[in-house]
Amino acid sequence: MEHQPTVAIVGAGPGGLTAGMLLAHHGFDVTIFEKNDAPGGRNSQVTLEGGYRFDLGPTFLMMKYVLDQVFAETGRQSSDYLSFTRLAPMYRLSFVDKQIDIYDDPDRMREEWARVFPDEVDGLARFEDRESRRLKRLLPCLLKDYSSFTRLYDRDFLRAIPHFSVGRSLFDVLGDYFSSSDARICFTFQSKYLGMSPWECPGAFGMIPYIEHHYGIYHVEGGLSRISEAMARVVEEEGGRIRYGRTVDEILFSGRMATGLRFVDGSEETFDRIIVNADFGHAMTELVCDGAVPKHTHAKVKAKKYSCSTFMLYLGLSKRYDVRHHTIIFARDYKKNVEGIFGGTLSYPDFSLYVRDASETDATLAPPGKTALYVLVPVPNRQIGADIDWTVETPRIRARVLELLGERLGMDDIAEHIESEKIITPVDWEEEYRVLFGATFNLAHNLGQMLWFRPHNKVESVEHLYLVGGGTHPGSGLPTIYESGRISAGLIRKEFGL
Known about the structure:
- The chain is an alpha/beta fold.
- The protein folds into three domains: 6-44 and 56-84 and 221-303 and 442-495, FAD/NAD(P)-binding domain; 108-212, no CATH class; 308-436, no CATH class.
- Helices cover 32% and strands 20% of the residues.
- It is built from 15 helices and 20 strands.
- It has helices spanning 14-25, 64-72, 106-116, 121-142, 155-160, 170-174, 181-185, 207-215, 225-237, 280-287, 298-303, 334-341, 390-409, 426-431, 478-495, and strands at residues 6-10, 29-34, 45-48, 52-55, 61-62, 84-86, 91-94, 99-102, 217-220, 241-244, 248-254, 257-263, 268-270, 273-276, 309-317, 326-329, 353-357, 371-379, 418-424, 465-467.
- Strand 1 (6-10), helix 1 (14-25) and strand 2 form a beta-alpha-beta unit.
- Helix 2 runs parallel beside helix 15.
């Protein structure tokens, strides 16, 4: 290129870092502006006194091959930057009356499934067969941009239509394979990644548990936040810059063209292209003046459907426990619990929990003989749970979570061993981490907010402005966020004839 185009990326989250890696590798002048002093956004690290380290957000690495491809596109191998462990079992599911370990090895999975659900064994083969075909048809649709309505008429999309299971929920679809409610729950709790209820989540997402069972789940030594650190390294190796402690106040426009950024200190810089990796809702309501993007006015953005939020506990414990790397604890009345989460209420005392104890897998997260315990409680976001007073509820939920860890995981003395602690509530997600409504999984993935109907990677009705992250196509979750970065980077490259 005769002129080296300048690209600004707002936020050093996984989508922005992916786009930055690829564009810098292909000769663009890339600058990433990150308000914090480290990369990652919601994929960054939490450190607590006493040598305890946690992932702030994502802890499951699915579809590792997507990450491998991103590194390969810059001529690198991810294994030169990161150390991966494939988990076996992938996770444990804990019901009140039973527990089951879930494996990606088909033989071990069938053996464990037969132990817990002896009348449901035949459903596994049907699940694997049908969902593998669904993934084959839907995956090409997820890898394309939807900047044009004509995408809905291309061959891949038309061939995929029968596999969308329109009008059926994820829980309904799993009924094609398993009759018991608990058996279906084992393959539908993954709708949490999408911030939706299994009874509302589109049936097309039956492919997500299949992806887990087919490709496995990985841990990264030091936590998944190490991925962001590695990506930041590659950006800089390719000549890009990451300017930490630099907070964007506003995206600047000239008519219908994005031209630059204004920072909180009042300074301004101009760029040829701008990529936004901030939370979609926050960006469109706080960084973009109302009316600058007609399709995404502040009122329209706030009226969209958002995912649930999460109540987070990061606990540094002076003791080790016999707990799986990943454990999902289901509430006694799981459906009632889920209905509360998406109806704006708290289901005291019956919560569901996700717990990560990576101590046996990874000795770098806590001192010897100690535990860095990560606990996530799905709760209503602040859009539907606006009446919840988190100053009142926080100590109540914390106390109940500690009780549940004792009741369901045998951690009866956990309160006595807490050395360090951090709590994040939906209020914190919104005010400190700048996530609209504290909706940690971003926009919901209902059919009206998927593919062409989801915010486009190239922002509609304006020029030179792009989106990456969970709030744009293809959606939330690390692999799809990486894909959003690849799609937006590809669109910019195409604009410049590459």
